[in-house]
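Appendix B. Chain record.
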Amino acid sequence: MGKIAKSAKRLLNKVVNKSYVYDFMDDPHEFLQTFFNFTTLEEYLETLKNWHKLMYSDKIEPVTNPANILFDHKMTCNLVNAAWLLQFQEQTVVGELLKCSPVDQERYLNEERAQLKTYPKGLTKEELLDPYHVVKNSFSTFSLKEYHQYLYHWLNESLSTCRSTDGQRSNKKIYRNLRKLAGSCWLILQRESGNITLTAKPHDRPIFKEEKNTVIGETPEEKVLKLLPNLKRFMDAISPLRLNISLRKMLVDYLLYNINGLPTDAENVLSDFYWLTDFVDEIQENLVTTFE
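Structure tokens predicted for this chain:
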């Protein structure tokens, strides 16, 4: 990863921490491993269900276990943080699975379901095939900041002696998203950490043209080769080094302009900036000499 991309990541870390407090982790898989070693998926979903019920209970009683509620709030916040970071992780097993034919995908899911004692409920077949899409879709509905705000509201409601009916519909949507996020994170962890041992992994068998329901098109490598002439024209028009400098100035201007308060889409803007600078760094480091 280039220097500009690393600088963007550090700025993203500082800006997000400035907006609201949460624990930033470098490796979401490591946290998820610790999380699901501490509790099973079923136990956590039951905890989440009871916590959600507590907020809408007509019968309000003094909270006898505030420490447990505080702990559940902290763990859920960290689970959301890990899920948010998963969007930027490399997809290995899931990526290979999506390249398979529908027949092989169905066989993979059946073997996986039979091998694992626990299996996520409430996810469609498409979501089971690509749990990363569930994660990305969850954060397209609510931002990371909004998840933390709602969870803080849940915490207050759970410990309060009175209940508020404001935002109940949004709270239920958050609850459904959290259940899906938990199931998706658990499934990603099982696949990417090698906890599943199948008789045939997705990439062990190629897709043949005679298979039914299989769309044969250009390979990713062939598509990339078609882009090379456009990339050369781009590099002839502007040098990657100059573009990096310009992008850095744009980021500084953006942060200074919003110094008193970041807009609601700041996470997306800074994330896009991070990946763009990383791409430009790769061009500068690996492709410049190719066209010289």
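Further analysis of this model is presented in Appendix C.
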